[in-house]
Amino acid sequence: MQMEYEILEKNEDFEDDTCVKSSSHFEQASEFFSYLPILLNSIDDNTDNGEKDVEQERILRKLISLIDPYQEQPYLLDPHLENMVKPIVDLFRIYIKSFNAQDLFFSRNSKDNLAKDNKIQMSNKIKRLFTLMYYLMKIRGYKTIVKFFSHEVSDLEPTYYFLVALDSQDYTGWEARYVLLIWLSLICMIPFDLKTVDSLADDTEGKKFPLMDHMIQLSKYYLKATGKERDGAAVLLSRLLTRRDIAEVYLADYIQWAQGEVKDNKDVFTITGILTSLCAIYKLGQRQTLLPTLEIAWPCLSLLEDNKIFANNTLVRKMLVKLAQRFGLCYLKPKVAAWRYKRGNRSLKDNLGDNSKTTSIDPLNINQSLREVVDDDDEIPHQIEEIIEILLNGLRNKDTVVRWSAAKGLGRIAQRLPQELADDIIGSLFELFSENTYKHNDVLELSAVSDHTWHGVCLAVAELARRGLLLPERLSEVIPWVSKALKFDLKRGTHSIGAHVRDAACYVCWSFARAYEPKVLAPHVAELANSLVVVSVFDREVNVRRASSAAFQENVGRLGVFPHGIDIITTADYFTVGNRVNAFLEISVKIAIFEEYKHHMIDHLRTITISNWDKRMRELGAKALHNLTRLDLDYMINIVLPYLIPLATSPDMDTRHGALLAIGEICLSWSLIKGNDKSWIEEHEPLITRISDIIESLPDTLFTDFGSEVTVKAAVSHIACLAKANWPVTSEIMGNWKWVVRDLLTRKDEIGQEMAIDALDAIIFHYGIEKKEILKYPFILFHIASLLYLSKKILGFVLALGVIRYDKIPECLELCVDSLILSSKLQETKMWNDPETRRNAFTSFTVISKNLGESFKTFCSKSIFDKMIEAAFIGLEDYSVDLRGDIGSWIRKASMMYLGVICPLMARLDQKDPKCKPWLSDELIKKVFGELLKQSVERIDKIRTCAGNILTELLYAKSDDGGNWLFDITGREVLQSILPKDEEIHWISPLELYPRMIKLLALPEYRLEALTGFVIAAGGLTESLIRHSSSTLLEYASELPNTSTPGTFTLSEFANTLLEIFRKYERQDRVVIPLLEVLDLLLETETLQKIDPNSFSFEDLFECVKKEARTREIRKLDCCTRVFCGMTTLNEKLRNRSLYQLLSLLVHSFPKVRRLTADQLYLTLTASIEDEESEEMLQIEDILTNTDWNNPVPQLKEIRNQLYPLLGLNLPVFRSSTTS
Amino acid sequence: MGLLSILRNIRQKEKEIRLLVLGLDNAGKTTILKRLNGEDINTISPTLGFNIKTLEHNGFTLHVYDVGGQKSIRSYWRNYFEQTDGVIWVIDSADRMRMEDCKRELKALLQEERLAGASLLLFANKQDLPGALADKHIREKLELDSIVTHHWAIQACSAVTGENLLRGMDWVVEDIASRIYSIE
Ligand SMILES: Nc1nc2c(ncn2[C@@H]2O[C@H](COP(=O)(O)OP(=O)(O)OP(=O)(O)O)[C@@H](O)[C@H]2O)c(=O)[nH]1
Ligand SMILES: [Mg+2]
Questions:
Q1: What does the alpha-carbon distance between residue A893 and residue A949 come to, in Å, rounded to a whole number?
Q2: To which H or E segment does residue A751 belong?
Q3: What share of chain B is helix, strand, coil (3-state, %, to 5)?
Q4: CATH number of the domain that B118 lies in?
């Protein structure tokens, strides 16, 4: 079966035009709160049944789906959280208290309190609420959600023992266990001595008490869980163990235990669980309490030495870096940085305008002076050095999360260090930047550095900078590194790496805005602003462009020192830089208007972009240079072109390509600026000559070697630009250019051919072409057939014929048109067929017509015109297929496009010359509309769209004098009502289209074509297409009147049209098979049976089907069988004739056909014969169903022959040869 | 994680402020919070544990912790100090007897290193009562001018009438918001 192919349309550069859908509030709130009560009320509903269960499950999923989209902006849920969480928690409390789990626990021997049979089984209903709660925590963060939970003393024991009593292995209950652990972490913040809360505690024991023993034990158990409970347990443990009363008694033991596990345990879940708990403890706890435990915990940092199996585990590595940071923070006292307040306002909005709002507390009652406590004599523990080492190393880790964690850690620790020590860290960061760099010709080479390290270091610099730890004195050292990082791009084979480094460098620039006063940054503003602008506009990656524009904006907003800052941030914002083409071609021009940025931008394009590994970038860079030329032509002439010219012959292929394109674009722009003033040509003669010579100076090998494709294309683009610029060249150079263009034209690559045609078009337009050159083109030969083995090469030349300006050499027109017509035709020899060539022929027709335009009739005779039109009609019948599918559709499309251009052109010319007989006769116009209508109900949606658009355009075209329709066609009213002018018609949607277009059948003028289109679609292959087209068609037919009132369309006329199609497309399976399918449907639905036999000849129809049944195509035979079966219901005569056909198909040489026929026949007979119980009928059924139709034919014939008398038929006389 | 998501996180975090409301028992802490939140203030009983309220204020989300002030509870205050952006210290201006107590507890609190850098708002509450000390007297009694480790402000107010509560809140939120980075 063939597939319906679509012609792929290129859609580069828009990949990045995504904008995150963001909302301003929780839009689904009311929906959420209408569903939530159903789950809440379900708890009290005891009339359980499976249906309700399913329904409630559905509601749970619905609720989750309502909040899930807020993962990115979860704070939008905040105003509703209380109403979401509280009612659920209230139910949890009631549910939990109803179990009295602690009584269960106390009444039992403590040994079996974890035994399975004593577990509480939660109902599905309560589990659902826990699941919902888990999702709330996941989306908004447990910290925010848990604040709405209750936390009274009386909550502690019931909740805890309830958790104890849950089955820890129940895999549908983990959400509940997680939520309960988190809840407990809140409850245990109650400001009471927990021992007094413990019902089991007695006063005589020591400081430990049973409840806490158990809770820690249970938490440790869940710390090893493979699921989410692990995190819950870590949170709970950290809360418990950092309470001062508990810490005193339990903390050291826990740390000891944890350290032992970390050393020996091989289970990755346990290890991550424990590390998570340690990180949380050292974050939450009080420094004084934690300090003594650090010594015990310290060995955890060398986990990877003891426990090598985790060396490659990202999570473990990240947590170790984090733990190192926490340890560090424990060793060091927090410091207050008074300057935090002195850098303007945190909120940009305030800075950019509205400063009116001031606090209304009496200023005398306010103290805003801050004394920083500086006790520099505080000794820095020696461990800090080791910790910093770990963190610095973490910056080079291969995993982003590890580097990120290390960077944050360094920032936080440095903040607590004395200035000199913090500055040492900065020094180390610079060393990391320069790691593996080397000087080459006095230029710093980065090709050997690690992108990981640079990324990590940038993050760290940013973290330090935004905390004010990067002192102003260091700025001049760091800025050169940052500038390099902003443009970091290392070639690696056929691509490059470094987008993450550039992104992190933007973070550094962003943090500068936060940390420095304008005057500190002032000396560096020019460099920073320029780099950021260039990255915002010319980076390859959308996220980097956006990051850069965000950093730029922060600097403008806070410091206000960037030149033209406000103008630029309104031009290059998050959205506008999202689309790369837009950024390169539009925004760049708007920014380069400012002198401060112009040259830096141009320089970036000429030195960096034109050598980018990505071809698309080089192309865009060249186009951008074209646009920027308008802003500074002198700079282009004096600096850029002289720089680029040598690069055009660079040994690096990418650079060569970029330079050739860029030179071409700049020169084209140059000539456009100068317009008719040609004085520049003399003025810059030496430069112009150098440019003219470029193509000549490219070594021949570049055009022949492997990979020459890229260079040839670049050269042709270059030539196209220069030709469009009407570049002054010698005939020698022109010969060279033509040679290069022809080279590309003969290559197989279609994009290349299009480029070559573009160049050729410009060359012919500006410099002309001679007849003898045309004649050299290989296809201008009527012995084209002998050359067709070159078909792929020919197809470029077919396009070339289109761009010749025949008004300049009219004598060539007919010759060329004839060649085109020849190549537009299907060739007898399949091998010579090439659909692209045929398509291109019509494309060339279009171009020729457009180029001749008003003077069409002057240069083109009527007979040539007629030939072209005729060829186009033949093209519309091109339904050829190959492995790629319906490739004929390309040709049909090109023919339609041609008709769409030539018809209005010719109609207008005809009107201008009313005395002459019009070239475009009414007959012709009618035919064009009919063909377009047929294509507009086609099966391929692109074709429908193309036909439909041209159709409406022609329908509503007005003549030049304004008032009248350009085309005076029959049936205009009906057509206009079907295709109203102002309505957008979705040609691709079968659902919309077919019911609309079926009304066309009422127009006798277009009936045949339209019905053919419908039939093909209805018998087609696409599910939705068949559904809508066939149901529309059947419905329509069944409603047609059966009487023959003149002027109305009747059922018999409908049938007659079908017959006409049969005859027109005899043995053309593409049409006939769908037609048979449609007939089958019409018979099955007893539509045809209604026809007045006097107005339609069923015999003729039968004969047509019979003719088609002579085939070896199984699908078609199957259709025929079904139609014959259907025809048995028409009348006695046809019944018999059909049965004869069917009985002969029963002994067809294909077993499959025999089987299909037997089945169909059986179904038909049992359905139609009233007297089911008759003796004959039983025998017939027996024969049809119990015969193995796979048996040899002679044997089957005997059996089959029994059927004739049984069906009341005479045994036919068989030719002797077939009965042996 | 790229800059755009870092910025999203930073912006989100900057919009969230954690406040701790402390002071002697009966000072009116819970009443102030309920008043700010528009709740009924007639049924308030001494806080035997802690309350967490989430309030919206000038576009910021305030997570406010209100812990009971009874003597037995005070030693547990420290369990709530983590990552506190601001402390609201509430004083019963009419309770002249316990000003010494109040001063001592406040001094002790400000020693706490985890509160270093937090903004301090003092509410001289219950100004509606006869005999309430004026803010400038309280400022003297509590020796506020010796506090140089924190930005602070004192505001006379009444939780019952609601008078001047917003002024105080405006100041503390503004002061916190004008820092370049938050407490971590
Ligand atoms: N007249 C007057 N009474 C107030 C004012 N504020 C609070 N009160 C009363 O003071 C009493 C204690 O108020 P709470 O809000 O419970 O005090 P608290 O600081 O929360 O006390 P603890 O929870 O025990 O620490 C209540 O009876 C309140 O009605 C006020 O501004 N004026
Ligand atoms: Mg209270």
A1: 12
A2: helix A750-767
A3: 40, 25, 40
A4: 3.40.50.300
- List, for residues A892-936, the tens digit of each pLDDT value: 999 999 999 999 999 888 888 888 888 988 889 999 999 999 898
Tokens of A325: 């940071």
Residue type, A1058: L
The amino acid at residue A329 is L
Q: What's the rounded Cα separation, in Å, for the pair A305 and A150?
A: 44
Evaluate whether A370 touches A338 at the Cβ level (below 8 Å): yes
Block means of pLDDT (10 residues each) for chain A, 1220 residues, are 33 40 80 92 78 88 93 88 94 89 63 57 90 96 94 91 88 93 95 86 76 93 92 96 92 94 88 95 92 93 81 90 95 79 51 48 81 67 93 93 95 90 92 87 83 95 90 90 93 87 95 88 92 95 94 88 90 90 96 95 95 94 97 96 94 93 96 88 91 90 80 94 93 89 83 91 88 65 44 72 86 84 76 80 92 89 91 89 85 94 91 86 90 87 90 89 83 87 84 82 86 82 68 82 73 88 89 89 85 84 90 88 89 88 90 90 77 76 87 88 87 60
Q: How far apart are CA A1049 and CA A1075, in angstroms?
A: 20
Residue A949 CB burial class (10 angstroms; 0-12, 13-18, ≥19)? middle
- Structure tokens that stand for A186 in this block: 């809140």
User: What CATH fold (topology level) applies to the domain A769-920?
Assistant: Leucine-rich Repeat Variant (1.25.10)
Chain A residues in contact with B1 by the CB 8 A cut-off are 400-401, 404
Extract the runs of DSSP E, i.e. beta strands, from chain B: 16-22, 50-57, 60-67, 86-92, 119-125, 152-156
Range of the domain at B62: 12-181
Q: CA–CA separation, A500 vs A483, rounded Å?
A: 14
B78, B155, B170: residue with CB nearest A244: B78
Chain A residues close to B7, C-beta within 8 Å:
510, 550
Residue A44 DSSP one-character state: T
Instruction: Classify residue A25 by its DSSP letter.
Output: S
**What's the token pair of residue A79?**
């105003």
HSE of A278 in the Cβ direction (CA atoms, 13 Å)?
Answer: 35
Helix (H, G, I), strand (E, B) or coil at A1178: helix
Count how many residues are written for chain B.
Answer: 184
Pairing relation of β-strands B86-92 and B16-22?
parallel
CB atoms A191 and B145 under 8 Å: no
Angle A502-A507-A512 (CA atoms, 0-180°, nearest 5)? 125
H-helix or E-strand spanning residue A930: helix A922-936
Under a CB-based contact definition with an 8 Å cutoff, are residues A605 and A635 in contact?
A: no
Q: Which ligand is nearest to the CA of B27?
A: 1
The position carrying tokens 């018809």 is A903
Cβ within 8 Å, pair A510-B7? yes
| Amino acid making up residue A479 | I
Q: CATH number for the A1039-1207 domain, one of 3.40.30, 3.10.20, 1.10.10, 1.25.10?
A: 1.25.10
Please spell the DSSP secondary structure of A673-690, one letter per residue.
HHTT--HHHHHTHHHHHH
**Beta carbons of A178 and A134 less than 8 angstroms apart:** yes
Q: Say how many Å lie between the CA of residue B60 and the centre of ligand 1.
A: 26
pLDDT digits (tens, 9 = 90+) for A230-276: 999 999 999 999 998 899 999 999 999 999 998 888 888 999 999 99
Residue in the structure block whose two tokens are 């045994």: A1211
B70 is catalytic: yes
Residue B4 lies in a domain: no
Looking at B12, B70, B83, B111, which residue is catalytic?
B70
Does domain A382-597 correspond to CATH entry 1.25.40.10? no
Cβ atoms A1041, A1051 nearer than 8 A? yes
Cβ neighbour number for residue A188 with a 10 Å cutoff: 22
Q: Which residues of B touch A148 (CB under 8 A)?
A: 52
